[in-house]
Amino acid sequence: MASTIQGNAVIFTQGGPTAVINATWVGVVQGLILCKDVTGIWGAINGIDGIMNENFIDLKEQTAGTLQAISYTPATQLRSTRRKPGQEENCRMLDVFQKHNIRYVFGIGGNDTSESLDIINDAARDREYELRVFHVAKTVDNDLMENDHTPGYGSAARYVANAFRGVNLDNQCFGGLYIGVCMGRHAGFLTAASALGRQSPEDGPHLIYLPECPFNLEKFAKDVEEVYKRHNRCVIAVSEGIEDENHTPILQVLSTGRLEADSHGNVQLSGTGALADGLVNHLREHLEGKGIVKKLRARGDTFGYVQRSFPDQSPVDREESIALGTFAAECSASGNIDGSCAIVRVSDRPYKVEFKLAPLKNVAGKTRRMPAEFIAAGQNDVTDAFIEYAKPLIGELTPLGALDMSKKVTF
């Protein structure tokens, strides 16, 4: 624990936005307003690009009503970037920090953001410039170490659960095949959320495929064949990051084109509908080729950005996001130098969480994956343990009705 220091604070958001990322930085602002050592509270527009370009907005000058409305607003009003800082960027940012006496830096994002902050933090130490650096967890992928779950996941999971509830009923009308590709490069938490809306054993998704398990196209076709014979239809949830046993992305197996990568080296997996279309074509060839169906009615969708920015926040997610942001501000006011602010579950029944400050290097650039106990033995579904874990995070879903088909008219 170090002594407090007087200076300005900068808040930035990095990486993919979420439905509650604004709520988190609003929480940081609310906490910092009470800190006597923080003289100004600035938002950097477009992440670390905004810092380097000295593109700041005064967050203290925003009205309480504006901040309240923004806390309910999806995506990030501070804009974003995926830039990863190198030596030149670090020097430029530190120059800006010294020029404007910026002593508090809050970055809201996922593991790439925590890695960027760790790099900035090390550069400040090398220059012997006293800085307080805090990472505040955010990602719909729910893949940050030290966290039970991350802000953004609950709202995105709520969307996915509701989307598959609707898809299941649509598919029920005509039969056939449906594949929905969800975000999740290395962790399958968001794809697994497709199971949270099931109301009966007959409901889809009937099959769920996660990146934690090796994906075999032949086994996949057989799984679908079994479900199709049983129900005359099949709804499937697939993670964009599914890989074969050699860790080759299935998108790459099915694709003949070159795959793009971002500045962090992440291959773009869901920018097109290629994975969904490739899997649909594979199943069409299998099911029609074996005569199981004459002409397959099939559709594949890539959920894309809508998962993370749909304006229907989970009430739990919003409340925790604001609270975690406020906690980060309190940590900085208490003399902490740096760290990653995380959510820890302390009770399942009743559901209850606490917040903790973890070392930045415990989170930076690392990935948490779905634990084995959340994945069904056949590797094509989730377990009751996952349902119990995730259900409190999405809030209550409106019950859906169903006709009692036994009440037939007799003549």
Question: How does this model look, in words?
Answer:
The protein is α/β, with parallel strands linked by helices. The chain has two domains: 197 residues, Rossmann fold (3-Layer(aba) Sandwich), CATH 3.40.50.450; 176 residues, 3-Layer(aba) Sandwich (Rossmann fold), CATH 3.40.50. Helices cover 38% and strands 17% of the residues. It contains 14 helices and eleven strands. The strands form two sheets. Strands 3-2-1-4-5-10-11 form a seven-stranded mixed beta sheet, sandwiched between helices. It has a four-stranded parallel beta sheet with strand order 7-8-6-9, sandwiched between helices. A hairpin with a 4-residue loop joins strand 10 and strand 11. The longest helix has 22 residues. The protein is elongated and about 80 Å long. The mean pLDDT is 94.
Rounded mean pLDDT is 94
Order of helices and strands: EHEHEHHEHEHEHEHEHHEHHEEHH
Helix fraction by DSSP (H/I, runs of at least 4): 25-40%
CATH architecture of the largest domain: 3-Layer(aba) Sandwich
> What is the general shape?
elongated
Rg (C-alpha, Å): 23 Å
Write the CATH fold name of the largest domain: Rossmann fold
Alpha-carbon distance between the two ends: 82 Å
Proportion of residues in β-strands: 15-25%
Level-1 CATH class name of the largest domain: Alpha Beta
The quaternary structure here is single chain
Output the strand order for the largest sheet: 3-2-1-4-5-10-11
What can be said about the biggest beta sheet?
7 strands, mixed
Topology, number of strands? 11
Number of helices: 14
Structural class: alpha/beta
